[in-house]
Design brief:
This protein has helices at about 45-55, 75-85, 105-115, 120-130, 145-160, 175-190, 205-210, 255-265, 270-305, 340-355, 435, 490-505, 525-540, 545-590, 590-600, 605-645, 655-680, 685-690; strands spanning about 5-15, 20-30, 35-40, 60-65, 70, 90, 165-170, 195-200, 215-220, 220-225, 310-315, 370-375, 375-380, 385-390, 395-400, 400-405, 425-430, 450-460, 465-475, 485-490, 515-520, 540-545. With about 700 residues, the protein is α/β, with parallel strands linked by helices. A hairpin with a 4-residue loop joins strand 18 and strand 19.
């Protein structure tokens, strides 16, 4: 049985005008092992087309090509890949070595595709390279070799899988006469000593003369097929091919990563610049997340200093129970106060709800077990004034911007100096602005100072005028309002002042102060959450404390701000994805011939996809790492700047932000690489090998 047999083979090409060009016509020929065949003919006669069909690179033909009696036309795609990998060895005129791989890696590339062990494939390649006189060139790149050395490397690559057929396309076309003789001697030995079928496509008569058989083609037809009667077989030379017992498989993920790393390293400047471009988007994402988290955390931490998880704070929201705004324009400077009937109604409603929730806690507004206390706030600019008499008997005065009664959740932690304490009768606490008002440098010197407090309290049906000498008991931490004069006063003391003013004005009933805040001391955080959730759902006319409202407002603002930042970062990430896609698409174009070489030595479509996909994944990892490093550097600089300017850094660089950025970088890179990888896998091997 012949090693290779062609029966009635026809091949047509479709031209641009949709006409057919006949490249091969009625090819009938067979070849045996050990033959050194030269296929000669003019350019365009069909020589290369015939070689591509025999090599399994072109399956669009009519007729039969039988290998060991099996029809190549019946091979499935996977079988055809294996045929090119194991049965055929290609030697090209232009060598077609992969420039960024070493000599050793170029030779072992087909074994890499077969997932042969590193030690086995290297040992086999080194043995062949030694026989070809290239043992000292193993670590060199193709650009460091002469033409003859490159062709011997190409021959070693063709022999590494111990194929039965060697197809050489103009193997000496780029070589000088001396090197040509050396290469022809090697090919002759492969046919004679290794007993391989060697088919050479050539224009050279010199090449044809050393062949055991000459097949001449003209206009796609075989016009001559003759054996060389003067042919003398080589003797005494060692076999070049090396057999292996290693179990073959397919390209592994590890090998794909290794190949991808070589590809990336060969274009390291381009890939680093691309990674840097992508990292800009990741840096913006990390910093925006960190800024949003830092500001939100700062607001939450600040708010937590003014709340207690076991205290429910209630005030009127300015809406009715259904959320409709009340018409309070004419009363905008009058605090919204609770009537006693409203307090009882709230008490009963909440107790009823707690009972349905099987919660044992009950709100009590009267008696010894009372767990409701009262508060009052008056955020009316200029309603209060402080007067301080200096040592020279001159006076300073300052408006009080905001007035609050001290809530029950305030503790020593809310005070700024160690000698501060919570105010009681005839005492007030003030914000840090009092230090400048009194002309002092040391905040602790403020404590114990006496000032005159004047308040015009508008209660709607009456105006209360309070004029009292009071002692400053503490400086309160009011954060961003520290530069304003903010006052905290004990509710009972303020209530007594109101009663006294009412009596002095002739109001003998002396009703006192109605609260604008209710504080419910619960038994647990669970109960607090139950009540707060009920209020949010069913009592839209009620809201939390001023501090809680401010915190909620700022938190909502920060949430919106964070979403806006995330959208901006998302747009930049889309731009990064497009950039990666364009660069990888260009990379496919630049490496088209390399893809053709890989397919000619048996690379499957899956292998090509895997190589390009792992490359895009590595680009994503590199971009993520670069982004994380620069984010840490820039974040550290910003933190230092913020701390020097405002005393704190509203940036919280949480560890999982870096993980998110790295994951996003990998995902967008892999997504961007899907189309280029698919395009690379679908490239026609014949067209790819012709690509310049």
């Amino acid at each position: 049985m012949a090693e290779l047999e062609l029966q009635n083979v026809y091949k047509d090409y479709k031209l641009d005008n949709k006409q057919l060009f006949n490249a091969l016509s009625d090819i009938n020929v067979s070849f045996e092992k050990g033959e050194l065949v030269s296929i000669i003919g003019e350019s365009g006669s069909g020589k290369s087309t015939l070689m591509n069909i025999i090599g399994g690179l072109d399956s669009d033909y009519k007729g039969e090509i039988k290998i060991d009696g099996k029809n190549l036309k019946d091979f499935k795609e996977a079988e055809l890949d294996d045929y090119r990998k194991k049965k055929i060895g290609f030697v090209f005129q232009s060598f077609n070595l992969i420039p960024h791989l070493s000599v050793l890696d170029n030779v072992t590339i087909s074994l890499t595709l077969s997932n042969i062990k590193e030690s086995d494939k290297n040992a086999r390649a080194i043995e062949i390279l030694k026989k070809l006189g290239l043992e000292k060139q193993i670590k060199k790149k193709p650009t460091q070799l002469s033409g003859g050395q490159k062709q011997r490397v190409a021959i070693a690559r063709a022999l590494i899988n111990n194929p039965d057929i060697i197809l050489a396309d103009e193997p000496t076309g780029s070589l000088d006469s001396t090197t040509t003789e050396q290469i022809l001697e090697i090919l002759k030995n492969i046919a004679d000593i290794d007993n391989k079928l060697v088919i050479m496509v050539t224009h050279s008569e010199k090449v044809a003369k050393i062949s055991s058989r000459i097949v001449e083609i003209a206009d796609g037809k075989i016009i001559k097929d003759q054996f060389n009667s003067d042919y003398v077989k080589s003797k005494g030379h060692p076999a070049l091919t090396v057999k292996t017992t290693s179990k073959e498989g397919h390209l592994s993920l590890f090998s794909a990563f290794k190949l991808s790393f070589h590809n990336m390293w060969a274009s390291k400047t381009k890939n680093f610049l691309m990674a840097l471009g992508v990292s800009i988007s990741l840096i913006s994402l990390i910093l925006m997340l960190s800024l949003g988290s830092g500001l939100t955390g700062y607001i939450d931490d600040t708010a937590s200093n003014y709340t207690n998880p076991t205290i429910v704070t209630l005030s009127k929201s300015g809406k009715d129970r259904y959320g409709n705004d009340l018409n309070n324009n004419s009363m905008s400077f009058i605090p919204q106060m609770f009537e006693s009937e409203e307090i009882i109604e709230i008490e009963e409603e909440l107790n009823s709800y707690l009972e349905t929730q099987q919660n044992d806690f009950r709100i009590v507004s009267e008696g010894e077990n009372k767990n409701i206390s009262y508060g009052f706030s008056m955020a009316t600019i200029g309603a209060g004034t402080l007067v301080y008499q200096n040592a020279d008997e001159s006076t300073n005065s300052s408006m009080i911007m905001y007035t609050y009664t001290t809530p029950p959740y305030y503790t020593q932690d809310n005070l700024l100096t160690e000698n501060s304490y919570l105010s009681g009768q005839n005492e007030i606490m003030l914000s840090y602005a009092i230090v400048d008002f009194l002309g002092l440098e040391n905040p602790e010197d403020v404590i114990g100072k006496t000032v005159t407090l004047k308040i015009n309290l508008n209660l709607g049906d009456e105006t209360i005028n309070i004029d009292k000498n009071v002692t400053i008991s503490g400086i309160v931490d009011v954060s961003i309002f520290a530069g304003m004069m903010v006052m905290y006063i004990d509710y009972d003391f303020l209530n007594d002042c109101v009663k006294e003013a009412q009596i002095n004005s002739g109001n003998t009933d002396a009703l006192g102060l109605k609260p604008s805040q209710l504080y419910i001391q619960t038994d647990s955080e669970e109960t607090t959450n139950l009540i707060n959730e009920y209020i949010k759902r069913n009592r839209l006319d009620l809201s939390g404390s001023v501090e809680e409202q401010l915190a909620a407002m700022f938190s909502e603002m920060m949430s919106t701000f964070s979403i806006a930042l995330a959208v901006i970062a998302g747009i930049s990430l889309i731009v990064a994805l497009i950039m990666i896609l364009v660069v990888l698409y260009m990379s496919v174009s630049e490496r088209t011939r390399e893809i053709g070489v890989l397919k000619s030595i048996g690379a499957r479509k899956k292998d090509i996809k895997l190589i390009f996909s792992t490359e895009s994944l590595l680009i994503g990892v590199l971009s993520g790492i670069v982004g994380i490093i620069f984010s840490l550097i820039i974040g550290g600089i910003l933190i230092a700047i913020f701390k020097s300017l405002i005393g704190f850094a509203p940036i919280s660089m949480l560890w999982y932000y870096f993980f998110i950025a790295l994951a996003i970088s990998v995902v967008i890179s892999v997504l961007a690489g899907l189309y280029p990888a698919s395009k690379a896998a679908k490239l026609d091997p014949v067209e790819s090998l012709r690509h310049e």
